[in-house]
Amino acid sequence: MPDTPTEMPQGALRPAGQADPAAPAPQDPRPGMGMTSPSERLGARHARELEQHLGWLDSFTGVALGVLAVASGIYTYLGVRTLLDDTGAWTTFAALSYSIAVSVGIFVFWSYMMRLLPAMRSASSRIGLLCSMALGSLAIIAMSSWLNAAALAGAAAVEQHLAVTVQDYQASLERAHANAIAGQSLGRDVARVRQSFGDLSEQEATGDLSGFAGRGAVFRVLTQKAAELAALETQIGAQDAPVAAAFAEGNAILSRMRALTVEAGPVEQRSVRFSEEAVRLAGIVAQLRQLNVAPLVARAAQDLAESVVLPELDGGSDLARSSQASTIDSVLLLLRQRAETLRGAAAEVEALPATEETIYTPISAADAVIRYAGNFVPSWAGAIAIDLLPAVLVFIVMVTQAAIRAGRGEGMSEETMTVAELRAALAAARLLQDADAHRDAGR
């Protein structure tokens, strides 16, 4: 009988397990369990690759967070020490406890964020955790970052405070000296008025003023006012040396204060010496204010016109006495005019900008860092970055987890099983079958 294959009639019986080649391929009744497309297989492979990377990175992420938290705690400890005056054991224990609490809080907070935020799928849950992360970041800055900045730039900030104070004292010293010099310039106005009265008295002595030569009543009035002005001029001139000496001493103190701002050594000790020099310089500024003769000239000008001792008219005839009285009236009018001129000049000096009161106030390193934050932006950036750097890692994990979910799609988990996972599942199924067989055999 030949071995040629024969056609089996349609509808004939076939051995069990043999499929009809003409029959259509059976369809999988479960939706989504059909054959995957090449793009889906590529996405699943990419997702598995990202998961492997995350698994390797996760092996040391906790250690990295711990290192960052400990580093922040160390700088926080140094910052706390600058705020505490006492150096005893309890103070050290308190600063150490605070820094440990900060380190633990930073580690726990970022561990929560790194685990939970990337796993969120809904927009509301992500927004809620993002708000929590923002609030926690502000809390970390409030309890740690500014202390870290104090530890990083505290000494430099205190030196900046000393330098700014030196500039303020220099401005006060220069202003006080300028006002005092302006007051000394009034001596020329006083000398001009005194010279005018001296010239008039000489004219009266020769008879060119009242018409009667001699040293009578008019002459005595003129010499009286010339003597008052000469005394005032002498008093003003006597202030030249004290003003110059006070200004020179103030500049010497300023030089020592500038040296203290850049001198090597602990800034706390330099601040004490700086404070002593600041007290001396404040005294010099006050002395220069007192040496200003403008108020003295203003009072002398007022007395020049109001306090006149009129002598008795001593003319030999009625005509001479009448001429003396008329001349004295003219002299008194001239006195009022000259007095008004001196008062105006003194008022101009007194109207100059007053010296601002400068007082040196010692501040701590933490306060100095906050007051002069604009001058220490790099230090502030480093202090904040060491605390908030894990936020970048959180966002990286979020983006990676989103890419993994996008690569997997919405299919069933068995569609993306690896060969190892499939082998493990088959082995587990065989174990269950063997267990069922033994149980049935025991019955």
UniProtKB/TrEMBL annotation:
Top-level taxon in the UniProt lineage: Bacteria
Disordered: region residues: 1-39
Transmembrane regions listed in the UniProt entry: 55-78, 90-113, 125-147, 380-404
Entry keywords, A to Z: Membrane, Transmembrane, Transmembrane helix
Keyword Transmembrane among UniProt keywords: yes
Protein name: DUF4407 domain-containing protein
Organism for this UniProt entry: Cereibacter azotoformans
